Amino acid sequence: MPCNQNCNQGRNCNCNRASDRAVVIIATLMLIAIIAFGWGVFKLIKGNTGLPCAVEVQFKDSKATYIGQSV
User: Fold this and answer.
1) CA torsion, points 62, 67, 68, 71, in degrees to nearest 10?
2) Which among 50, 56, 43 has a CA at the least distance from the CA of 70?
3) Is 23 within the bounds of a domain?
4) Do the domain assignments include residue 4?
């Protein structure tokens, strides 16, 4: 960003760059937040499948085995 102070013929204006740094920091934090949110949604939808398992159930006159995945 340009210096808004009135400088005379090459003198050092000592422009305040705090606003520039704030924009960079906020943009970086927003990028990190967007990446973290996207990763969380991905893990919620795709990445949290359970392990294969089998459950055997005994009835009065028969036996059944249910095959699936843990939660």
Assistant:
1) 60
2) 50
3) yes
4) no
| Helix H or strand E segment including 70 | none
Q: Beta strand 63-69 with 52-58: parallel, antiparallel or unpaired?
A: antiparallel
Task: For residue 18, report the phi and psi dihedrals to the nearest 5 degrees.
Answer: -65, -35
3-state secondary structure of 66: strand
Domain of 48 in residue numbering reads as 18-69
Predicted TM-score of the model (pTM)? 0.47
Residue-level pLDDT, tens digit, the chain, 71 residues: 455 556 655 555 656 566 678 888 999 999 999 999 999 888 888 766 677 888 899 988 889 988 887 76
In a domain, 10, yes or no: no
C-alpha distance from residue 20 to each of 27, 30, 47 (Å): 11, 16, 39
